Prior knowledge:
The chain has 20 helices and 20 strands. It is an alpha/beta fold. The chain folds into 3 domains: 4-135, Chitobiase, domain 2 (2-Layer Sandwich), CATH 3.30.379; 141-470, TIM Barrel; 508-549 and 587-663, Alpha-Beta Complex (Alpha-d-glucuronidase, C-terminal Domain). The strands form 5 sheets. It has an 8-stranded parallel β-barrel with strand order 9-12-13-14-15-16-17-18. Belongs to the glycosyl hydrolase 67 family. One of its GO terms (cellular component) is extracellular region.
Amino acid sequence: MESIFMRKRRIRNEALWRTEIMHGRRDFCWLTKQVQNKNIITYYLDDGKKTAVTETIEREMPLLFKEIRRSGSPDASIAFLPGDEAALGTEGYRIGETEAGYKIESASPAGYLYGMYGLHRLLTAQNETGFPYESVPDQSIRMIDHWDNFDGSIERGYAGESIFYDHNTFRGDMELIRQYARLLASVGINAVLINNVNVHRAETFFVTGEALTEIRKISDVLAAYGIKTYLSVNFAAPITVGQLKSADPLEPEVASWWEETVKRIYEEIPDFAGFVVKADSEGEPGPFTYGRNHDDGANMLARAAGPYGGVIIWRCFVYDCAQDWWNREADRARAAYDIFEPLDGRFLDNVILQIKNGPIDFQIREPVSPLFGALKKTNQILEFQITQEYTGHQRDICYLVPMWKETMDFDTKHGKSLTVKEALRENSPVRRRSGIAGVGNVGMDANWTGSKLAQANLYGFGRLVWNHELSAEAIAEEWVRQSFCLTEEKCGKLAAILTTSREVYEAYTCPLSVGFMCKPSIHYGVDIDGYEYDRWGTYHYADRDGVGRDRTVKTGTSYTRQYSDARFSEYEDLSSCPDELLLFFHHVPYTHVLHSGKTVIQHIYDTHFEGVERVREYQAVWESLKDSLDEESYLNMKERLVWQMENAVSWRDQVNTYFYRKSGIPDEKGRKIYQ
Length: 675
Ligand code: GCW
C-alpha cells in the first residue's frame, strides 16, 4: 500500500490545519500545525531503555502527527533507529525515506527528538527537500538566558511577567514550563539559564535550601526535552548566604564554602549544568573588590564545579559604569578586551567566557567584539540579545536574524581568515564547551513574546544557531509557514516585513552606528542627548561641526588597535571604514561624503524620512493580510504598528531637527524639518 508519506506534497497542501486540540490560552507558535493523515499510522522507537527524552517523544508524536500510534515493528510509518555517532555526533540526526514512510536515525534520544521536530518541520514548512536529510548542530551549547527575577519581573522583558517566578515564589506551573521546553527543543536549544545575571538578594539564596527542590523540578522538565539548566550566582554569596567576612576567591574558606555549596547542589540536581556569573559589572560584586583578577574568580568556582562535570560561564560584560563624560580618553568599548585578552589561556577548561556580540551593548548596529579571534586558548560563547531592549521593545518590528548572521559570518581576519562562528569552535580548547547564547524574549503573555512577530526571533535564534547555513530569509519564511495559513504570495509579503525590519529600525533610530540616542534606562524612544552628559560611557559628541566617536589610534581612544591588523587598518582609515560603522569609529564633519555618495547630514535626513515611510508600508501590507490572518494575530500587530509609527515619527522629527539646528544645513530635498 502506498504510504501516506509518499504523497507528502499533497499532504502538505491539503491537510495542514490549525488545531485547537492543544487547549488552553497559550499560543503554540510554530508547533500549532499537525500533520494529518487519513489512516492511522504508526511509529517505531528503538529506545534501548526508556529515558525522560524518549518519553517526551511518545507524548509529542500524537501532537505533531494526527492519529499516530506506537508500534513494535521497525516497519512503521516513522521509525526511530540507531544512527552512526561518528557522522552525527550526539545530537545530530538523519532522515531517510523507507517503503513505509521515514526513518529517523540518531545516536541518542536527544537526536531522535530533534529528528522528530525536524521531520515535522520538513512536512509543514519547508519546500522540496532531498532525502536523506542530515542535520548536525553547528554549535555545541545553544542557550537561552533568562533575566527573570524572583519577584516575577523580567529585566528587559517585554512580554509580561516571568514564567518561572511570581511574587518571590516559584510559579510552579510545570505544564507551562513544559510547553516552553517544547518550543525550545523544537528549534534545537539545549541549555537554559533560569535567573537574571543581576542576582539580587532573594536569588542569591537559590544555591541552597528549599529553592533547590523547586529548581530541580524545573530542571527535570527541561531535561526531558534535552535541555540543561544553569543558574546565575552572586559572587558575594559566601558573605550573604555563608556569613563569611569576604568573598575573596583566593581565600581558602571562600573556596571551601563554594565547594560545599556546589556539592549540595549536585546532590539535589545530579545533571545540573553550572553557573553563569556577571562579576564586577554594573554594581555586581566580583574579584576586583579583593584586588584579584577574573581568572582567579572564575577558576575558583570552576574547581568547585569540576568534579561534577559542571561549568562556569563567566561574562565579559565588564566595564566602568561610572565614567566621567568629560574625560574623552576613557572608552567603554575598550573594556572587555583590555580586561580579558591578557587572560587568554589562564582559565581552567571548564570555564567559558561569554562575550556580547559587540563591544558596548546590544545596539542595532555595532562592530563585532574584538575579542573574537583574539582569544585563542579560551572556551567561548557568543551572547546575543533576543529580547528587544534597544531594538524596539517588541512594539516595533525588528527581526534580528540578519544581524546575528552578519556577526557570525564576520571575518575577524585573524590569520588568513577566521569568521566568528569558526572562532567560537576552533579557539575553544574544549569544543563541546563553546556555543551561542541569546537573552530570551518570552513571558506570561498568551503569545509568549508580546508581539506575535517577535516569535520569529526566538524561532530564528534556535534555527540559526543550530544551522549556520540557513539564510535569514529562509528562516523567516519557515516561521511564517508554520505560524499562519497563507498563500505563497502572502507568505512572501509577511516574510519581507521581517527581513527588512532591522534596516528600517536602524534607519529611524541609529544613523551610521552612532548608538544610544534613546531614552536613558528604558532604552525605547528618542532622547538624543539623554546619555551625553552621563556616566555610562556612550557619547555621540555632536557639535556644530560634526558627530561621532573618534576611536582611532591617530587621534582617538585607540580602540581600533584591538582588531587584527587587517581590520585595524580598515577601521582606522576614514577612507576604508564602512559607512554603517563610521560614527562608531570616527568623528566627522556633517559634510563628510560617505561611500554612498551622500553627505553625513543628508544620510541622517534621508534615513529618518525613509524609516517612517517604510513603517507606513508595513501598515498597508498588514492590512492587506487581514482576511488571511487569525484575528488575534492581526489585532496584535495592528496595534503595535500604530505604536511603531508614532515612535518612528518622533525619532524622525527630533533627530532631523536636532541635527539641523546643530549644523544649519538644510535638507537638499526640502522636506519638512521643524526648526
Ligand atoms: O544591556 C544591559 C542592560 C542591563 C543588563 C546588562 C547585562 C542584566 O541594560 O539590564 O543587565 O546589559 O547584560 O548585564
